[in-house]
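Summary of Year 1 activities. Much of the first year was spent building the evaluation harness for sequence design. The harness presents a backbone, in tokenized form, and records the residue chosen at every position. We chose the following record to illustrate the format because it has been used consistently in internal testing since the harness was completed.
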């Protein structure tokens, strides 16, 4: 590097990036910046450069997007939900909200959107400010091309993880046309009815679509009366049939858990403990609930025809653990 050039500024949280304004403040001339851009630097987004031409990882690209969007811009939508730790569909665009006094603009896969509503910053990661989960969900419903089923699942997951509350999300959804947030509203309702995931919400809808079936409780704890052994929290429990329903998905029942245990082995052992307590265990996959609910209901009907188990299982409902 020529000795008359200043050092590239190292700014905390910017992943080795700098804006043109920051470079000028650091003593770079416009001519020097143009020369470096044409030789050894790369432009991540307009007016945002990295001092190398190597690949930029995802956190660096997001920091570059935030620098392009500006100091008052707040990340929202699907990309923000991903930053909150949710598993999201691939976002086609990153959205930033700015006050109404700022300017809307767009570049490639980035868009800055003006809003007359306040935009509180719920979290910062480096230079990236982001909206809370409730606002991000509502914005994703309105702006991102999210399948209704995926939006429902994201809503339930954000509530189940405590990223937002039912009250906070309900207030946020009322700021949007209800047709835009219908799937998020469905997820909120399902969570308040006891569902912890989209498959469990589907289980409740399928079951409640048959008013002749006995009541179904979701996500309650079961304990053996004689021994006090905690049997687990089945996805569904129909006490009148002595029936527990387990929704088995590859995503949640395969692999290694946080304690180093085999998830599938734990699932099988838990189901076996329920059978030993005299309960009937009916397993179903999410795909069946989504695509072939009639097949699931046929199996339920077969159990109904058998009548209640004799003797009845000696279990009681307890709070989940």
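For this record, the design step produced the sequence shown next.
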């Amino acid at each position: 590097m020529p000795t008359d050039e200043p050092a590239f500024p190292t700014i905390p949280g910017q992943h080795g990036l700098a804006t043109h304004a920051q470079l000028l403040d650091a003593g770079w001339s416009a001519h020097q910046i143009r020369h470096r851009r044409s030789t050894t630097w790369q432009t991540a987004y307009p007016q945002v450069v990295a001092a190398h031409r190597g690949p930029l990882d995802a956190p660096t690209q997001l920091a570059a997007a935030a620098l392009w969007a500006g100091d008052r811009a707040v990340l929202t939508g699907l990309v923000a939900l991903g930053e909150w730790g949710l598993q999201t569909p691939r976002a086609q665009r990153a959205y930033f909200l700015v006050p109404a006094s700022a300017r809307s603009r767009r570049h490639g896969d980035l868009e800055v959107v003006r809003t007359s509503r306040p935009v509180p910053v719920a979290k910062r990661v480096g230079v990236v400010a982001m909206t809370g989960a409730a606002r991000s969900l509502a914005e994703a419903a309105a702006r991102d091309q999210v399948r209704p089923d995926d939006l429902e699942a994201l809503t339930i997951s954000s509530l189940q993880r405590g990223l937002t509350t039912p009250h906070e999300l309900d207030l946020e959804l009322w700021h949007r046309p209800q047709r835009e947030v219908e799937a998020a509203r469905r997820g909120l309702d399902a969570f308040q009815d006891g569902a912890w995931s989209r498959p469990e919400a589907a289980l409740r809808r399928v079951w409640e679509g048959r008013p002749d079936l006995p009541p179904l409780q979701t996500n309650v704890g079961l304990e053996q009366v004689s021994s006090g052994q905690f049997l687990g929290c089945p996805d569904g429990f129909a006490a009148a049939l002595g029936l527990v329903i387990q929704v088995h998905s590859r995503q949640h029942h395969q692999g290694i858990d946080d304690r180093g245990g085999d998830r599938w082995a734990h699932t099988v052992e838990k189901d076996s403990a329920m059978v030993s307590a005299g309960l009937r265990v009916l397993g179903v996959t999410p795909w069946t609930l989504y695509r072939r609910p009639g097949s699931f209901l046929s199996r339920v009907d077969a159990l109904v025809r058998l009548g209640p188990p004799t003797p009845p299982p000696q279990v009681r409902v307890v709070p989940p653990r």
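DSSP finds 13 helices and 15 strands in the chain. Quantitative recovery figures across the full test set are reported in Table 2.
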